[in-house]
Amino acid sequence: MAPSTRILAAAAAALLAGEAAAQPQPQARIKIDTDRTIGEVHPHLFGNFAEHLGRCIYGGIYDEGSPLADADGYRRDVMEATRRLGVTLLRWPGGNFASGYHWQDGIGPRAGRPVRPEGAWGALEPNRFGTDEFLRYCERLGVEPYICINAGLGTVEEARQWVEYCNEPRETYWAGQRRKNGRDRPWGVKYWGLGNEIDGPWQLGHKNAGDYGKFALEAAKAMRRADASIKLIASGSSNFGAAADWVGWNRAVLDRLKGEIDYISLHTYIGNRENNFENFLAASWEIDQRIEVVAGLIRAAQAGQANPRPIHIAYDEWNVWYRARGSGEFATGRTRLEEIYNFEDALAMGMFLNAFIRHADVVTMANLAQLVNVIAPIFTNEKGLFLQTIYFPLAEYAKQKGSQALDVWVSSPTYRAGTRPPLPYLDISATYRRADGTVCLNVLNRSEKMDITARIDGGGQPAPGLEVWELNHPDLKAVHGFGDDAKVRPATRHVPAAASGNGFVYTFPKHSLTVLRFRAA
Ligand code: AHR
Q1: Rounded distance between C-alpha atoms, residue 32 and residue 440, angstroms
Q2: Which residues line ligand 1 (CB under 6 A)?
Q3: Each residue of 175-209: pLDDT tens digit?
């Protein structure tokens, strides 16, 4: 694994004595070296997720009969907002829903599709949106589909048949069914998840690591016989409860499946339950740690193998989620999980994405959970939609896809958040686009009270200056709503770089997320 970003906490002001008097004294120092690349910011880091849950599919993506939908029932306004979000990959059909879903219920003429009680969230599933509707949606959006099989209550053969239905070019029974349903050419689904959160006791068909490994190995073999070119994602840890042995789960899964899988998944949701801004944004510590531990477990599983199969991390569910938990709603069948995001949640998007970029050598897929209405950046009603606060950083970071992640050296004032070690107030990632020499420096200032001035070394003194994208708001709890989604929007400006030595200085305002874009000199 490439070196992780090294963060040295120091009283940087002392180091930097002697700067030009007119400039504020830097308290932090950031060193950029465009040769110190970590890996590609994989386009699939900007994946998303659509589950049969609440109003994500029905009333979100798909709204038959709505004047806002096209002839196939897809909401045009949602498609447009999804495109502008920069989504590259879409995971479906769950989530917890996947562990009770039988895909054959969702194909063929709609009138013949069964309505079933749904075991994960308590709703009735009409099956009006199924495999072909999902894959057509992805095709129309130009995003890569990622299907998660039912490794809870489902069977190996059911999973194998699903691959055959989607990908088989020859005249077979399931390819014939696909053709009958209007799709001659194989859909060519490349990414397949071997189940969802099977380590969680809340999961339908929850298994221990041994039973899961056995099931997933057989499913992987059978699915690969249906299409040898597919990429498989094992169900990694999602249960970080006090009693959960998440390291043991990942170790066991990797040991068992290392010859078959291409990714192992990780899931993390965070929340500001204590109403403590700085502690909330300290969750980068757990995110970095989970990535680094799983990366180590991958290496350990492969140690001694001559030609190990490359395995990456798919962070295929992540977000802020703590208010709309839906506790007790199962019996009502109306679980919606409709979080309304505020400004500080938007800053958390930068924190997650910085962590993924810092580990770009091993995290090559990530899926925000979810796309519409359900813990989502896009929120609809029957008349239209609004963009939640979290939409904007996601869309901005997505522009860095395909660049090289840089290993940045940071020295910043630090703070203590609970029992964590001291954390730098500045949470940073950087990317470099070789083609035109553009550096993006992504800086989250997670101090609630303190602007932080940093000297940025190594990039020279960029001409013609800095392009600044900044997300900030005086009210950490500011939210958007229908007809009111202009409040928490990024400000953009060009500023000359304030020269200092082999670099420049810049002040990152308190509680802000900044992307500085410049040409490395
Ligand atoms: O995204 C909401 C739920 O969170 C998903 O269904 C599940 O996988 C996770 O626990």
Answers
A1: 10
A2: 51, 94-96, 196-197, 317, 369-370
A3: 999 999 999 999 999 999 999 999 999 999 999 99
